[in-house]
């Protein structure tokens, strides 16, 4: 299930790059 975690991490990074407004809304937990 590591692929799923990596995919979510990659998606979050891509979402934060083009949309800086999503950073404060979706804050990763340590």
Automatic annotation (TrEMBL):
Q: Which domain of life is it from?
A: Eukaryota
The protein in question is named Uncharacterized protein
Native organism: Tetraselmis sp. GSL018
